[in-house]
Amino acid sequence: MNTLVVINGSYHPDGLTTQCLEAISKKLCDKHNLTPVNFFLDDNIRGCASCRSDKHSDCVMWCRFEDQFQTIAHAIQDAKRVLIGTPVYLDFPSPKLLAFISRLNCLAEKTNREFFRGRYIHIHANAYVSGTKSTIQVLMSACEMLGFTIEGRSTTEYIQKWSDHKIRGGMTQEDACLLS
Ligand SMILES: Cc1cc2nc3c(=O)[nH]c(=O)nc-3n(C[C@H](O)[C@H](O)[C@H](O)COP(=O)(O)O)c2cc1C
């Protein structure tokens, strides 16, 4: 129970999400006297496929697809606190973090939504310039639906003043109003 399960949804082990999670993890561990257990999500972790393994409901407990999911899920079972972090991809969490979160549904569903009750989660999103809020919102909704208590959320952006005229934010050249 004295662990903080840290789940990294980045594709870069030495990237910015990792740096952010290290800093937040240190803060949470100091505050609650916890030891971190770190997981870098496998690039090929599967998402829920609604496989209907159980005749009576969609899921079986601990999921039928065997991959990194089971190891992380058991670590969460042994912990009271979880920290998840993701880079922003088109205003959304990374595909592999979404895949992983969707798999957690079997644990909530097969325990009458008790599995995550009393477990606290901190959510972090990291981006170049935009999309952290929508990413946090998506993850908060999913985590609340699973039954987690949202303990905290945080964002980082590393935008610098642009020195070029590249079009950003999904605009075309015709839409753009460039300042000189
Ligand atoms: C496919 C893709 C989509 C991205 N979409 C956004 C975005 O919508 N907004 C943004 O500010 N940054 C976006 N980024 C940039 C990443 O969020 C940013 O570089 C992040 O810090 C990368 O974290 P990492 O070092 O852990 O990989 C995107 C990057 C990729 C590869």
CATH topology: Rossmann fold
Major sheet strand order: 2-1-3-4-5
Binned strand content: 15-25%
- The N- and C-terminal alpha carbons lie at a distance of 57 Å
Secondary structure category = alpha/beta
- Counted up, domains total 1
Q: Any idea what the shape is?
A: globular
| The CATH homologous superfamily | Flavodoxin domain
Secondary-structure element order, N to C: EHEHEHHEHE
Sequence stretches where pLDDT stays below 50 over 5 or more residues = none
Specify the number of helices: 5
- In angstroms, what is the radius of gyration? 18 Å
**What is the total tally of β strands?**
5
CATH architecture grouping? 3-Layer(aba) Sandwich
What ligands are attached or bound here?
flavin mononucleotide
Helix content: 25-40%
CATH class: Alpha Beta
Q: What is the residue-averaged pLDDT? A: 92
Major sheet details: 5 strands, parallel
InterPro entries: Flavoprotein-like_sf, FMN_Rdtase-like_dom, ISF_SsuE-like
Organism: candidate division WWE3 bacterium
Keywords: Flavoprotein, FMN
Pfam families: FMN_red
Structure description:
This protein is of the alpha/beta class and 180 residues long. The chain has one domain (3-157): Flavodoxin domain (Rossmann fold), CATH 3.40.50. It has five helices and five strands; from the N terminus they run E-H-E-H-E-H-H-E-H-E. It has helices spanning 16-32, 68-77, 95-103, 105-109, 132-146; strands at 3-8, 35-40, 81-87, 120-127, 149-157. The chain has a five-stranded parallel beta sheet with strand order 2-1-3-4-5, sandwiched between helices. It is globular and about 60 Å long. The protein starts with a strand and ends in a 23-residue tail after the last strand. The structure holds flavin mononucleotide. Flavin mononucleotide (FMN) binds at residues 10-12, 15-17, 87-91, 126-131. Keywords: Flavoprotein, FMN. Residues 4-149 form the NADPH-dependent FMN reductase-like domain. This is Flavodoxin family protein.
